[in-house]
Amino acid sequence: PPALSQWSVAEPRLTNSVPSGAAAIATRGWRPSSGNPVTTSRRLAAGSDAFGSKRITLPSTPPRGAILQLRPGAAAADARTLKPYASGLRNSMALAVTPSGQLLAATNARDYINLADPALSDAELPHEPLNLVQAGADYGWPYCYDENRPSPEYPGWDCRNKQPPTFLLPAHAAPLGMLLYRGKQSGGLDGRLLIAYHGYRAAGHRIVSLALDGQGHPLGQPEEVVAGWEYAASRHPQGAPVALCELDDGSVLISEDHNGSLLRLAAEH
């Protein structure tokens, strides 16, 4: 019904989800066959300012650095009682579900790794993991990064039993949104994964597409769909795409938060 404020009709679905020193980040993945949420996730991750200390101890209650699976009911769920669907994922901002029901998650990794170890390049490390998420798997954060390498704060950590990433995206790309494109309008994109890179560094501020095989595994390398989104003096800030939504006509809406814009990607006629 019409309401004076969106908050007058909002009801909590998840409570007690933010531990001290963590940030709550909510996204959802949908089961294509039924339209019902298969994973409603609120991921809890300490920011980069807290990463360099050994104050982070996992597991924690409520879970942090994890994807939670919530099956909505009449009453709000308590995050402290939810078992992580997967853990060791710093900020899994972008979620998508394949037609076969497999969950894909793109994670925002840390910044300033060189402050912990000057021999490591902040410009090149760490990469942003893209995972075909396995239920119950531990992907290693904060103790491990990239291909199961010990984080510089934990040089002696044994990362061999952690789940390695499915694919590595560029460092600091900051993937915030993903969409498995199913339309026909945009030539060459059907069945490809669209990823919005929000980052302000060289690899960010663009949208790329990535081919997937029948099981959801990435094929080849990402290809640019929208690029050249640079700062233009007295005209517009650098682009910063956030979320993607496919419309019935096959075009794609792009929300972007540096310019405060909503854009539409469509094939030329």
Descriptive report:
The protein is mostly beta strands and 269 residues long. It is 1% helix and 34% strand. It is built from one helix and 19 strands. It has one helix spanning 48-51, and strands at 14-15, 23-30, 37-45, 66-68, 77-78, 84-87, 94-97, 103-106, 128-132, 144-145, 149-150, 167-169, 175-180, 193-197, 206-212, 218-226, 241-246, 252-256, 261-265. The strands form seven sheets. Strands 7-8-9-12 form a four-stranded antiparallel beta sheet, with no helix packed on it. The longest helix is centred in the N-terminal third of the chain and has 4 residues, at 48-51. The protein is globular.
Tally of separate helices: 1
Structural class from helices and strands? mainly beta
How would the global form be characterised?
Answer: globular
- Share of helix, binned: under 10%
Secondary structure blueprint with pairings:
Blueprint: E1 14-15, E2 23-30, E3 37-45, H1 48-51, E4 66-68, E5 77-78, E6 84-87, E7 94-97, E8 103-106, E9 128-132, E10 144-145, E11 149-150, E12 167-169, E13 175-180, E14 193-197, E15 206-212, E16 218-226, E17 241-246, E18 252-256, E19 261-265
Parallel strand pairs: 1-5
Antiparallel strand pairs: 2-3, 4-6, 7-8, 8-9, 9-12, 10-11, 13-14, 14-15, 15-16, 17-18, 18-19
